[in-house]
Amino acid sequence: MKVIAPAKNDQIQKSDNKQSDTLGLFNSTQLIIKEAVQKLGYNDDVYELLKEPLRTITVRIPVRMDNGSIKIFTGYRSQHNDAVGPTKGGVRFHPEVNESEVKALSIWMTLKCGIANLPYGGGKGGINCDPRNLSFRELERLSRGYVRAISQIVGPTKDIPAPDVYTNSQIMAWMMDEYSRLREFDSPGFITGKPLVLGGSHGREAATARGVTICIEEAVKKKDIELQGARIIIQGFGNAGSFLAKFMHDAGAKVIGISDAHGALYDSEGLDIDYLLDRRDSFGTVTNLFTDVITNQELLEKECDILVPAAISNQITAQNAHHIKASILVEAANGPTTLEATKILHERGVLLVPDVLASAGGVTVSYFEWVQNNQGYYWPEEEVAEKLRKVMVDSFKAIYKTSQAHQVDMRLAAYMVGIRKTAEASRLRGWV
Ligand code: NAD
To answer: Whose CA is nearest to atom 5 of ligand 1?
Structure first.
């Protein structure tokens, strides 16, 4: 690994791929939903219902800043479909959050819950802000303000939030506390991803990466690759990416590249993951400590066996899909690969494990947390891990089988498996 040096590179790298994504997240999601619904034999009414969330609200959140001024933030909560049960999904704090992204993400949560067979529909929320420029107290006021603004439509039996990009267990704790004050009863089941002492679940923090790890273990079997010694590149070194790097390293794989918003580190001999984990900050930033940094785009195109985008959306597009050299691509992030790129990779024989399957470990353990909150009885870590493994292995197998049986790529297969439960529940309720 290259020598550490004083921070030089403190600029956040801008993704320049957005323009090449002709459809956009929301439209491409609708397109695959349509294809999946048709393949499953449902009529157009089912597609008309499922193509949009049932409800999306935009809220304006006034926050008193530390300097005494007031700043108004815009937030969203989208609930895709609650035919199966309450909606469920994370809240992200990011400067690029917008309504159409939150809507698409809520549909993906329906798919994830369907794939993992959880009794939920999909929800998602977000606040357009840059938490890296907010103080601890400003973050607390913003988190509490968001809960006050959406309190009418959320709750342990209505819609259950969770962490996502740039939100963590502390933010969940503030949100839960605010909700408990509004409702005047203790309600740990209102939100998941809480600290352990406030009713969080063992294994929740690392759940997404554990789920991705299980998908990688299943995917390498299909490609006859030994995980021991396999070369892995991970884009993103936050919650999902850093735990995954650790798990892969511990499993004997060679993590040869990692990145964050500032750039990427690459070493064909393998990076010192323990050292990098030790030096990363709470936002998943570590590359700013190094001088020998390449760009995120360069990293994605490096030779490797397994590539895991674990940062943001629209990273692999029609522009760079031909240059991806991995034989397995596992999407830990939501929406890192565009629809055009998915087709290119599928034609090239790359095994793509889609986001709605690969990152379903997070919502699965969130479900376990909610169940534990509801019964007031808490499980040891091994029990959580064992239950998660079963869900992920069964989900991977079901989707792989569907893709083979219908001769479709893994993304369409995942949509078919994921949408079936909500489509059927909506039909049985007489909605369509
Ligand atoms: P995080 O905020 O903990 O980390 C995000 C990482 O991405 C950081 O290392 C950050 O530096 C990096 N990043 C940000 N902008 C970037 C850019 N332009 N280029 C390259 N890297 C950039 O977030 P997380 O919780 O690890 O989530 C990462 C992805 O995984 C997201 O797409 C999220 O939706 C998805 N996901 C997370 C969970 C979960 O439980 N944490 C569950 C399901 C899906």
So the answer is: 238
DSSP letter assigned to residue 94: E
Q: Could you tell me the pTM of the whole model? A: 0.92
Question: Cβ(399)–Cβ(342) under 8 Å?
Answer: no
Over the stretch 13-40, which tens digit does the pLDDT of each residue have? 544 444 334 468 899 999 999 999 999 9
For domain 208-358+408-415, give the fold. Answer: Rossmann fold (3.40.50)
CATH of segment(s) 52-185: 3.40.50.10860
* Dihedral of the alpha carbons of 300, 301, 306, 307, in degrees to the nearest 10: 20
Start-end of H helices in 238-380? 239-250, 273-279, 296-300, 339-347, 355-358, 360-375
Given a contact cutoff of 8 angstroms between Cβ atoms, the answer to whether 43 and 321 are in contact is: no
124 classed as catalytic: yes
Which 3 state secondary structure label does DSSP give 409?
A: coil
Helix count and strand count (H, E) for the chain: 14, 11
Active-site residue, from 88, 103, 112, 124: 124
Cβ(248)–Cβ(232) below 8 Å: yes
Domain regions of the chain by residue span: 52-185, 208-358+408-415
Tell me the best of 334, 366, 388 to mutate to test the pocket of ligand 1, counting ligand atoms within 8 Å of each CB and taking the most: 334
- 173-213 pLDDT, tens digit per residue, is 999 999 999 997 778 999 999 999 999 999 999 999 999 99
- Which among 283, 339, 298 is positioned nearest to 132, based on CA atoms? 283
Residue 10, token pair as written in the block: 């403190």
